[in-house]
Amino acid sequence: MASFSLILIRLSLVAVLLTASFCQLKAIGIREAVDDAVGEQREFDYFNFALQWPGTQCKNTRHCCPSNGCCRGSNAPTEFTIHGLWPDYNDGTWPSCCKKSKFDEKEISTLLDALEQYWPSYRCGSTSTCYSGEGLFWAHEWEKHGTCSFPVVRDEYSYFSTTLNLYFKYNVTRVLNEAGYLPSNTEKYPLGGIVSAIQNAFHATPKLDCSKDAVNELHLCFYKDFKPRDCIIERSPENDNYFSSSSCPKYVSLPVYMSSGVDDATAAIPWILENEPL
Ligand code: AMP
User: Fold this and answer.
1) Which of 9, 62, 80, 253 has its C-alpha lying 20 to 30 A from 73's C-alpha?
2) pTM for the complete prediction?
């Protein structure tokens, strides 16, 4: 009987210890659990190349600083810029933070001029990086998405140079301009016309995201050999067509950003910049 009670006490002790370690795991954060799992994320299926429309991105600019592309006055971007190259899965999900490979600006020093121009940040504050860090927008994109593009893209330099090459090869702004879709604060364009212009040029269907009626992002998709393919448009069984499943209305705009005209970047107020939420 005494030994039975001893077994019961031991079992209760084990239960208490197991509960305590579970609570501790929760307390140190799910991130560690994710970190342990990162090695197990399966290889991606295709690339999603995300572009941003500066006129829409910059409309939300509340503060300026040298790192904010919206604040370059007459040098502010007027064409689609790069958000990132994202390895995605066919089921609509994606891997993230796949390798502990910390962003190092020195590795891409020869690309910096092009990146400043075509892959600008539209914020003043820093962006979250993997493993509880914060850093440049480029660091976020490399650590969160770039590290998952293995084995097609194997290192930081290749990630940024490959993305720039795609950007130059598939010039969405030029295709839209040639089809008559010019930046304007008064015109509205049929979404179907914009989609068709891209389909005709690249033989694949893009995905568009809007903020109200303004085009915010345009995504091109590629097989792993970088041949264009259709993007995945989430369609519900009731709404099985492009337009009702898009976040854009039937008529959309490509707004022009009107900067304040002053030297925006030097009009920055440092303490606001440090604390601006992303
Ligand atoms: P992603 O994980 O690649 O979808 O990036 C999303 C994160 O990047 C969010 O924190 C956004 O606020 C931020 N972000 C998106 N576009 C930009 C941009 N052009 N400049 C700076 N941060 C951005």
Assistant:
1) 253
2) 0.81
